[in-house]
From TrEMBL:
<dbReference type="InterPro" id="IPR013512">
    <property type="entry name" value="DXP_reductoisomerase_N"/>
</dbReference>
<feature type="binding site">
    <location>
        <position position="14"/>
    </location>
    <ligand>
        <name>NADPH</name>
    </ligand>
</feature>
<dbReference type="InterPro" id="IPR003821">
    <property type="entry name" value="DXP_reductoisomerase"/>
</dbReference>
<keyword id="KW-0560">Oxidoreductase</keyword>
<dbReference type="GO" id="GO:0051484">
    <property type="term" value="P:isopentenyl diphosphate biosynthetic process, methylerythritol 4-phosphate pathway involved in terpenoid biosynthetic process"/>
</dbReference>
<dbReference type="GO" id="GO:0070402">
    <property type="term" value="F:NADPH binding"/>
</dbReference>
<feature type="binding site">
    <location>
        <position position="146"/>
    </location>
    <ligand>
        <name>1-deoxy-D-xylulose 5-phosphate</name>
    </ligand>
</feature>
<feature type="binding site">
    <location>
        <position position="120"/>
    </location>
    <ligand>
        <name>1-deoxy-D-xylulose 5-phosphate</name>
    </ligand>
</feature>
<dbReference type="GO" id="GO:0030145">
    <property type="term" value="F:manganese ion binding"/>
</dbReference>
<feature type="binding site">
    <location>
        <position position="216"/>
    </location>
    <ligand>
        <name>1-deoxy-D-xylulose 5-phosphate</name>
    </ligand>
</feature>
<keyword id="KW-0521">NADP</keyword>
<dbReference type="InterPro" id="IPR026877">
    <property type="entry name" value="DXPR_C"/>
</dbReference>
<feature type="binding site">
    <location>
        <position position="171"/>
    </location>
    <ligand>
        <name>1-deoxy-D-xylulose 5-phosphate</name>
    </ligand>
</feature>
<feature type="binding site">
    <location>
        <position position="16"/>
    </location>
    <ligand>
        <name>NADPH</name>
    </ligand>
</feature>
<feature type="domain" description="1-deoxy-D-xylulose 5-phosphate reductoisomerase C-terminal">
    <location>
        <begin position="142"/>
        <end position="224"/>
    </location>
</feature>
<dbReference type="InterPro" id="IPR013644">
    <property type="entry name" value="DXP_reductoisomerase_C"/>
</dbReference>
<feature type="binding site">
    <location>
        <position position="212"/>
    </location>
    <ligand>
        <name>1-deoxy-D-xylulose 5-phosphate</name>
    </ligand>
</feature>
Length: 384
């Protein structure tokens, strides 16, 4: 029997991270936790360290309790990159949110380590650097985002030359049926009430603005090496069809399942095998009854258009956009700006930004920092 796959979970206290620990715990013969990294939730991380006894731990905020738990099992790392390249790790799951996963992803890929990537902002900011690191190190990227896991599965056994179009499905988020007038007055609590998925706060707001889908179009370009013109978005309220691929001969393949991230997480770990048991309830299509599809409305949800435009421009534009979005979402959650200000802030930043083609890491980080500074300074137009 093979020894268990040793997994480093970056972002272990978050929504994806906690579900990953669930999956790992279900199959102790197959998977083991080798390392954990998190941000500010030192209490939960301390509990995870005490229960799972990883050999490497990183935290942005270290509490005395975490220090004690980490000292009992190994050393506290100074940086998340150190966890990503620690010895005795077979795969790194990058489940941090926002820009935090960029450096650990590059570090792991540069030493040829497989990376299961949930943190889509990493690919949006610097897809070309991720690809370069993967090619230089001989590493491998396995998609975790549900749509990209679906596309990945549709492409198994297919030639990449046979792809005509990638079709990403979008639930439409919390405000899919709201008018523009109604959108002006929505609250963070309403935005955080996603109709089909339970996720972290930032991605849930991104889903409500359709920025999540916009970022996913750029993520698809890098993961599957297709131009933006070969990526489409279709609204699908039920989140049962996770995405589709249209091939050159007109055939269309889709992957379906109940909306539950434990399947894509499990598959990214078990690949190229499928596990013998599902981690979630099975899909009963007769009980679902009807599936709906439609076109996204770019007037009500301009973030999708902004992201696709940034993806087409390339260079530092997507990094500036992602940074502006991160700041705008935080400001909305703090009630400093209204929901309709989120695309305004991003558009303002992109108008000021002069994109550099093929940027170095330093240039990406500079574009990120400048976009954050600009986004923090945009005054709200809609009263928060
Ligand atoms: N949730 C979902 O269902 C899906 C998520 N994704 C993507 O996966 C990523 C994670 O999403 P989600 O789990 O929802 O987000 P959460 O906000 O729930 O979790 C984010 C995690 O990142 C950790 N973190 C923050 N900063 C650092 C840092 N500097 N170093 C290490 N860890 C850090 C947080 O730690 P702490 O809590 O301790 O501060 C937390 O564990 C995002 O990019 C999202 O777009 C993609 C598809 C589905
Ligand atoms: C679960 C997952 O992959 C999320 O990215 C999800 O897609 C969000 O739903 P939306 O379709 O509303 O963006
Ligand atoms: Mn997704």
């Amino acid at each position: 029997m093979k020894p268990p796959l040793r997994v480093a979970v970056l972002g272990s206290t978050g929504s994806i991270g906690r579900q990953a620990l669930d999956v790992i715990a279900r199959f102790p013969d197959r998977f083991a936790v080798a390392a954990l990294a998190a941000g500010a939730n030192a209490d939960l991380l301390a509990e995870q360290v005490a229960a799972l006894r990883p050999r490497y731990v990183f935290a942005e905020r270290v509490s005395p309790r975490l220090q004690e738990a980490a000292a009992a099992v190994g050393a506290l790392a100074e940086r998340p990159e150190a966890v990503a390249v620690a010895p005795d790790v077979d795969i790194v799951l990058v489940a941090t949110a926002g820009a935090a996963g960029l450096l650990p992803t590059l570090a792991a890929l540069r030493i040829g380590r497989p990376v299961a990537i949930a943190n889509k902002e990493v690919l949006v900011m610097a897809g070309h650097l991720v690809r370069e690191a993967m090619q230089a190190g001989g590493g491998e990227l396995r998609p975790v985002d549900s749509e990209h896991s679906a596309i990945w599965q549709c492409l198994w056994g297919e030639s990449p030359h046979a792809i005509r179009r990638i079709i990403l499905t979008a639930s439409g988020g919390a405000f899919r049926d709201f008018s523009r007038g109604q959108l002006a007055a929505v609250t963070p609590e309403q935005a955080l009430d996603h109709p089909t998925w339970k996720m972290g706060r930032k991605i849930t707001v991104d889903s409500a603005t359709l920025m999540n889908k916009g970022m996913e179009t750029i993520e698809a370009m890098w993961l599957f090496d297709v131009p933006m013109d070969a990526v489409d978005v279709v609204l699908h309220r039920e989140s049962i069809v996770h995405s589709l691929v249209e091939f050159t001969d007109g055939s269309v393949k889709a992957q379906l399942g109940v909306p539950d991230m434990r399947l894509p997480i499990q598959l990214a770990l078990s690949y190229p095998e499928r596990m013998p048991e599902p981690p979630m309830p099975l899909l009963d299509l007769a009980a679902v009854g009807v599936l709906h599809f439609g076109r996204p409305d770019l007037d009500r949800f301009p973030c999708l258009r902004l992201a696709m435009e940034a993806g087409r421009i390339g260079g530092t534009a997507p990094a500036a956009m992602a940074a502006a979005d991160e700041v705008a979402v935080e400001r909305f959650l703090r009630r400093e700006i209204g929901f309709l200000d989120i695309p305004r802030v991003i558009e303002h930043v992109l108008e000021q930004h002069e994109p550099l083609p093929s940027p170095s890491l330093d240039e990406v980080l500079a574009a990120d920092a400048e976009a954050r500074r600009l986004a923090a300074a945009v005054a709200p137009e809609v009263p928060a």
